[in-house]
Amino acid sequence: MALPQKYIFAAATTLLPRARAGHHAYDALACAAERGDATACGVLLEVARWETPVMGATPLERALQAGFVDCASFLLAKMAFSVDLLKGDAKRPSLKRRCFEAAVRSQEANVLTWVLTSADVAALPGRFGEHPTKLTPLVYCIVRAPPLVGVVIELLKCDVSEPSGPQRTPPLLVAAVRGAAEACARLLQRGADPFCADGNGATAVE
């Protein structure tokens, strides 16, 4: 016979010191994901409603950013999607794009590789390149995790000269301004144009 929900929740929160009485089960789920605790996540999914937080990241994003691929994979397979969570809007990227960004923030090549090659992530609606500000995946990676640029270029088959953001800034210019020498080298190896200018006429060679 199945345990009552209050006992399931109590058992799960006992495993999670940060989940105090009065917190919603969703908060405990986010905490479990951040710790990579798939067992606690499984218990909490019995009572927690998967939803889009008003601010902050979903449990799936928390697991990815913390580098817990196994836990993220478990959550992705179990989670019940809502339309709002999936599609994104004019202010917030889709879940697929947010998974990519969380993987980049993890600074772990294996986490980013999993997101970009996982069939479950690929099945999510939308594209990795969709973003309200037109910020391309490549430029996001240059800004957040320059050492992972090679992974993004290789797996997403990026146009290394595609302008990004409101100023239509070329990736090589972003890398040069940030002093990301390794990223600059990879972009040039792939044929990035050093004379490609942004909306203000600035180029990487300047």
Structural class: mainly alpha
Beta-strand portion reads under 5%
Mean pLDDT: 81
Give the overall form. elongated
Largest sheet: none
- Helical proportion? 40-55%
Count of DSSP-assigned helices: 13
Number of strands: 0
Gyration radius from CA atoms, angstroms: 19 Å
Report low-confidence residues grouped into runs of 5 or more.
1-9, 11-23
General description of the model:
The protein is mainly α and 206 residues long. The chain contains 13 helices and no strands. α1 (5-14) runs antiparallel to α3, α2 packs parallel to α4 and α7 packs parallel to α10. It is elongated and about 55 Å long.
Topology:
Elements: H1 5-14, H2 25-35, H3 38-44, H4 59-65, H5 69-78, H6 83-87, H7 95-105, H8 109-117, H9 119-122, H10 137-144, H11 149-156, H12 171-177, H13 181-189
Helix pairs in contact: 1-3, 2-3, 2-4, 4-5, 4-7, 7-8, 7-10, 8-11, 12-13
Which features does this protein show?
mainly alpha
Structure summarized in a few sentences:
The chain is mostly helical. It contains 13 helices and no strands. The longest helix has 11 residues, at 25-35.
